[in-house]
From TrEMBL:
Pathway: tRNA modification; tRNA-queuosine biosynthesis. GO terms for biological process: tRNA queuosine(34) biosynthetic process. It is an enzyme of class 1 (oxidoreductase). HAMAP family: QueF_type1. This is NADPH-dependent 7-cyano-7-deazaguanine reductase. SUPFAM superfamilies: Tetrahydrobiopterin biosynthesis enzymes-like. It catalyses: 7-aminomethyl-7-carbaguanine + 2 NADP(+) = 7-cyano-7-carbaguanine + 2 NADPH + 3 H(+). It comes from Alicyclobacillus acidocaldarius subsp. acidocaldarius (strain ATCC 27009 / DSM 446 / BCRC 14685 / JCM 5260 / KCTC 1825 / NBRC 15652 / NCIMB 11725 / NRRL B-14509 / 104-IA) (Bacillus acidocaldarius). The gene is queF. InterPro entries: GTP-CH-I_C/QueF, NADPH_dep_7-cyano-7-deazaG_red, QueF, QueF_type1. Substrate binds at V56, E57, L58, H75, E76.
Amino acid sequence: MLNQPSKTLVTVPNPHPDRRYTVEMETQEFTTLCPMTGQPDFATIYIQYEPDQKLVELKSLKLYLWSYRNEASYHEDCVNRILNDFVAAAEPHYAKVVGDFTIRGGIHTKVTVEYRK
């Protein structure tokens, strides 16, 4: 696997598909560009999911999130796209993505999106 940004989320077989359990992931290294100013926006991204047959491989998730660094995108769009791509790859029972963005112009933004089969 390369160490370059990638829009591909790699999955691996879930060793316990018979059991419902929750996986929680967090990164404080998410960056995207503000489409209005071109300035970087920073966020902590939280992903929680209940896997079905597949797990998302963590290095691919890191490289996927890294791919947003040079993209101009609104907070709401980033978080919804992350959820859509995650669900398309992993096909989980449930998934939730939270983007907790740093204060910009005195306003703190937190975007939460969920998916349920």
